[in-house]
Every structure is written in C-alpha cells, then in structure tokens.
Amino acid sequence: MGRLLVNLSSSLLLLCLICGGSMVVRSQSDQETWCVAKPSSDEVALLNNLNYACSIVNCTIFQEGYSCFYPNNNISHASIAMNLYFQSHGRNYWNCDFNSSGLIVSTDPSFGDCVYLFGN
C-alpha cells in the first residue's frame, strides 16, 4: 500500500511538472491553525494553562474592558492564552499540548470582536 502511494505521488508530481505547473506543499505551520482548550479540560488544567501561557505571552486581550473578556470563564480565557502561546512559538503541535489539554483546530475560533490571532 505504501509503495503504491509513493508511486502515485511521484506520477502526479511528474505529470504536474510536465504540464508546466508547479506544486506548493504547505507545512502544518503554514496552514491556518489555532490552539484551544479541549472542552473536557478540568478547571485545574485550565488554570495551569492560563498561568503558564500568561507568564510568557501578553494576555491583556481577555482582561476586563478588552475585546475577549466575555465570556468571562476559564475555558474561554485559557483557549485565548493557549492560542497566543501556540502562535508565538511557531504553531508546532507540541506547542498546543498543555499536558494533553490542548486541541489544534483549523476553524477560526474568533467570535464577535474577539479575534484569535493567527501567525504571530
């Protein structure tokens, strides 16, 4: 099966180059991805993630009076902090682990005026 996929991939690449096209291969870090807290995360994990991420990145965005304060709960604030950390550290899957409480998503979690940063 693996050999068939390699042969198929090679054939498609060759066909593309013969036709004058070009292939762009995007790595995970080039794709639009965000890091959020898993919905199953407990409060202790969320608080640990908040404390850790906010000790490294600026978490002002979800302070009272800023665009991401509401909803004022730990899962929302932890998700924003985790994403800030993830984006600022290269968007590698290991930068969203947070002791297995992080989840990489390809759908923008932004809502209302609260914009989850992408590509810092």
Automatic annotation (TrEMBL):
Pfam families for this protein: X8
Please verify whether the record's keywords include Isomerase.
no
**Protein name in UniProt:** Carbohydrate-binding X8 domain superfamily protein
> Which cellular component, as a GO term, is one annotated location?
plasmodesma
Ranges of residues in domain X8: 33-116
Record carries keyword Manganese: no
* SMART domains listed in its UniProt record: X8
| Keywords carried by this UniProt record | Signal
The region annotated as signal peptide is 1-27
Which organism is this protein's natural source? Rhynchospora pubera
